[in-house]
Amino acid sequence: MAKEETKSPQVEVPPEENATTPEVTEMKNRLEKAEQQNIELLRTLAEFQNTRKREARDLEIERKFSHSKLANDLLPALDNLERALGAARQAGDKSPLVMGVMATQMQILDILRRHGITPIEAQGQSFDANFHQAVTTRQTADIPANHVLEVLQKGFMIHDRVLRPASVVVAQMPTVPVEKNGGE
């Protein structure tokens, strides 16, 4: 058997000078323009998506903290309940009226807690200007310096933000040695 040789068809390649015909140049220009439009479209799409994400994030933050004003308006009433209970405790009053005030205070605190509003625990804690507002200092040897000696007004957080800092008295080291309570 003899091998048959197959000839591949000859394709005429235009000479180099004919490669830049006006049609080819037009097609290149159209391709460049289409690529540029595609880049601009992708950039616009990315900006739009970023804007939507930012708006969704802003809306979520607005929803999360939307009841801040109401909480700030309620806190003075809660402070008054706290003062009334403190006065009743000092007087040794355990009447049904005091129990009712205490139940009301607990109910308000529970409602606030359900909405992400919680008291700042400050008593005996190290002073932190992010959570505490120092009203004054007092010399004492009872607790370490720069710790909260007394809470004058409770502070509150709303989720991860301070709604109202705790107003506190901060302990200071005595300049003259002070005897501890019960010392000789």
Describe this protein's structure.
The protein has 184 residues and is an alpha+beta fold. The chain has 2 domains: 23-64; 68-172, Head domain of nucleotide exchange factor GrpE (Nucleotide Exchange Factor Grpe, Chain A, domain 2, Roll), CATH 2.30.22.10. Helix content is 47%, strand content 18%. It has 3 helices and 6 strands. It has a 3-stranded antiparallel sheet with strand order 1-4-5. Strands 2-6-3 form a 3-stranded mixed sheet, with no helix packed on it. Strand 4 (155-158) and strand 5 (161-164) form a beta hairpin. Helix 2 packs antiparallel against helix 3. The longest helix has 43 residues, at 22-64. The protein starts with 21 loop residues before the first helix and ends in a 12-residue tail after the last strand. GO terms for molecular function: adenyl-nucleotide exchange factor activity; protein homodimerization activity; protein-folding chaperone binding; unfolded protein binding. It comes from Telmatocola sphagniphila.
Q: Rg from C-alpha positions?
A: 38 Å
The figure for the number of domains is: 2
Class of secondary structure makeup = alpha+beta
Strand line-up of the largest beta sheet: 1-4-5
Order of helices and strands: HHHEEEEEE
Distance between the termini: 127 Å
As residue ranges, the low-confidence spans are none
Organism: Telmatocola sphagniphila
Region (Disordered): 1-24
Subunit structure: Homodimer.
Subcellular location: Cytoplasm
